[in-house]
Amino acid sequence: TQPSAGTTATQQILNLPKKNAAQLVDHLRTVLSASPAEVLNGNKVVEVRARGIHKGAIVDRVIHECSKQLPDGRAIDFVLCVGDDKTDEDMFTTLSSAATGTLSSTLPNIVTCTIGVKP
């Protein structure tokens, strides 16, 4: 259906009852099953993304690109990562690994925070 005047299709999807959102996720998973996409049902969000591309991969790339831009081997001062959904867990995992792994010297201050109930 077409969005009504003053309403976007996204707003209409966001206002779907949970039952309809679950049906949408099931339908998308069926339709996209042979594609390189995955469908996640989050907190008031349905996320469709390419397999292997997630918020954690993006955070990793941003950190690496920012680190290359800093002069004289300086470290990134501070990283704050806030999320409210299970689709954010990849970010938290990536940052946790970065804090304890090979990037620990270049990322001395990482803070992650889940808003609401942890999924």
Structure report:
With 119 residues, the chain is of the alpha+beta class. It has four helices and four strands, in the order ααββαβαβ. It has a two-stranded antiparallel sheet with strand order 1-2. Strand 3, helix 4 and strand 4 form a beta-alpha-beta unit. Helix 3 crosses helix 4. The longest helix has 15 residues, at 55-69. The two termini are 32 Å apart.
In short:
By secondary structure, this protein is of the alpha+beta class. It is built from four helices and four strands; from the N terminus they run H-H-E-E-H-E-H-E.
Distance from N terminus to C terminus (CA atoms, Å) equals: 32 Å
Q: Can you count the beta strands? A: 4
Quaternary organization: single chain
Q: What is the helix/strand order?
A: HHEEHEHE
Query: In angstroms, what is the radius of gyration?
Result: 18 Å
Envelope shape: elongated
Provide the low-confidence segments as ranges: 1-12
Helix content: 25-40%
Largest sheet: 2 strands, antiparallel
Blueprint (SSEs and pairs):
Blueprint (H helix, E strand, L loop, with lengths): L8 H6 L3 H14 L5 E5 L4 E5 L4 H15 L9 E5 L5 H12 L9 E5 L5
Parallel strand pairs: 3-4
Antiparallel strand pairs: 1-2
